[in-house]
Design goal:
This protein is α+β, with helices and mostly antiparallel strands. The chain has a single domain, classed as Ubiquitin-like (UB roll) (Roll). Helix content is 27%, strand content 30%. The strands form 2 sheets. Strands 2-1-7-4-5 form a 5-stranded mixed beta sheet. It has a two-stranded antiparallel ribbon with strand order 3-6. The protein starts with a strand and ends in a 6-residue tail after the last strand.
Length: 81
């Protein structure tokens, strides 16, 4: 099992991050997002408008711990329907 968390960026979040996938240490989603946005104001702006899935489940509590081996999908607002 992986000892880290995989973040998968989509659409505008991928463009702002400059990568489609990143790996971080386990922490709460709030802490993880602060870490990946540090030094990247463009990503921080996009992240503020995103929704998040952890292991394919919508996140309701940004402060709950995310464990090693999990994955986070970062989903910007999408146009259309």
């Amino acid at each position: 099992m992986a000892m880290d968390i995989e973040i998968r960026y989509f659409a505008a979040a991928r463009a702002a991050a400059g990568v489609s996938v990143d790996h971080v240490d386990p922490a709460s989603l709030t802490q993880i997002l602060a870490a990946v946005c540090a030094g990247n104001p463009q990503l921080a702006h996009v992240i503020d408008q995103c929704s998040f899935l952890v292991n394919s489940v919508a996140v309701n509590d940004m402060d709950s711990p995310i464990h090693a081996g999990s994955f986070i999908d970062v989903l910007p607002r999408f146009a259309g329907g």
